[in-house]
Design brief:
Elements (H helix, E strand, L loop, with lengths): L3 E5 L2 E3 L29 H10 L4 E4 L15 H17 L5 E9 L11 E5 L2 E4 L2 E4 L4 H12 L3 H14 L4
Parallel strand pairs: 3-4, 4-5
Antiparallel strand pairs: 1-2, 1-3, 6-7
Length: about 170
């Protein structure tokens, strides 16, 4: 849930060994031990792996909170620890790799992004008739929502969705 982007000369690659997820408040992992972005590796282990791969730059990113409970966003109580750990790694490895501190900000996220090195814009929901409709949860959830809120008109839904995508940078 979330991902780490490793960038080298502006080319992005996803490494399955470095796939990430954000520990949630109900997680079985009570002591996160630096595992803000991966249940498999600590952020430091990821930085060391990137260095071993010869990377010159890497960025950590996680999903910002949505203002309502989700199973895939970084909870607000983790943001400060996440920021502190990435700052520590930036300093520790500054002579070997440039580490960037990022966040994926959904159109409806309300997190202040001014302190991040980069922000990835995204749209995971469309707000319709007082409800947030997930665009990428399950096919059934999505099609049921389009039936309920758009009378089955997928084109009307797509118009609302792409209107948000077109404006995500302004958010």
């Amino acid at each position: 849930v979330g991902d780490i982007k490793l960038a080298f000369r502006s080319e992005f690659a996803r490494f399955s060994d470095l796939e990430t997820s954000i520990p949630l408040p109900n997680s079985q992992e009570s002591d996160m031990g630096g595992r803000f972005v991966s249940p498999k590796m600590t952020a430091e282990e990821m930085a060391e792996a990137a260095i071993a791969l010869g990377m010159k730059r890497m960025g950590f990113s996680a999903h910002a909170g949505m203002g309502f409970p989700t199973s895939w966003c970084m909870p607000p109580e983790v943001v400060i620890s996440y920021r502190e750990e990435i700052a520590r790694l930036k300093k520790k490895y500054e002579s070997q790799i440039e580490i960037l501190y990022g966040i994926e900000q959904d159109y409806y996220s309300c997190l202040d992004t001014s302190d991040y090195d980069y922000v990835l814009g995204s749209v995971h929901y469309v707000y319709k008739d007082g409800e947030y409709i997930s665009v990428d949860y399950t096919e059934k959830t999505f099609t049921d929502a389009v039936e309920k809120y758009y009378n089955g008109d997928f084109y009307a839904f797509a118009e609302d969705y792409y209107d948000l995508v077109g404006n995500v940078a302004e958010k």
